[in-house]
Design brief:
Blueprint: H1 3-19, H2 29-36, H3 40-52, E1 56-59, E2 64-67, H4 69-80, H5 83-99, E3 102-109, E4 112-119, E5 134-136, H6 141-148, H7 152-159, H8 174-187, E6 190-193, E7 200-208, E8 214-223, H9 229-249
Antiparallel strand pairs: 1-2, 3-4, 3-8, 4-5, 6-7, 7-8
Helix pairs in contact: 1-3, 2-3, 5-9, 6-8
Keywords: DNA-binding, Transcription, Transcription regulation
Protein name: IclR family transcriptional regulator
GO molecular function: DNA binding; DNA-binding transcription factor activity
Length: about 250
Amino acid sequence: MNKSSNLSSVENALKILECFTVDDTEKRVTEISNELGLAKSTVSRLLKTLLNQGYVKKNLENQKYSLGNKVLTLYSALMSNMEIVKEAHPFLEELAKDTSESVQLAELDKNKVIYMEQIKSSFPIQIFAHIGRVNPVHCTSSGKLLLAYKDFHTIENILSKGLEKYTKYTITDEDKLKKELLEIRDLGYCYIENEFIDGIVSIAAPIRDYNKNVIAAVSLVGPIQRINGVKAQKYIGKVVETAKKISSSMGYMY
């Protein structure tokens, strides 16, 4: 096998691993083959290698594959080296305890927002994102917030990929969204209702590093029945203050 073939195999193996998501944890060879446009023989060969190395596992009852424990080992190693997660965790716990709502830490990953840490709500009904979950940028508070601090070229590039409508309140007009991004940047926080999921409120604020760059977002999420009116304004202040505390711990000087 030549160098080009080796690189192609590695790339396809990584694509197979990326097929598995929080919402779709198990897949058959045929499903992966159709999704990636790869021959079933290629998928089977790569899955066998990944299986032998522990990166995937196979359910013998339904013949479906899912991620293996080796991926968890890599994830643990990544998390242990992520300074921002370490620094943010106690402040996220403080905010979650103070509000009893779900709190998250997120960053921008290409044209999506990915959640690096979460603290669950203490209420029986909880709204939170799994660690590693990927959500759209244009209708989540963390996504909009992080996008608002990006340069013009990056914003144009991300918006050009399309704005999917999730609820009747999702903004799908580029010009309207760009105007809102400017407002978010001026305010220093993002507050949304019903844009990604009906009945859900989300509030996000920016986390900066010592170079004054916005590197992540802290967000609070809960049902609109619990977060509205005076309480919503109060929580906005708490989220912004939490973001400032984390930023200070990252070396940002106010």
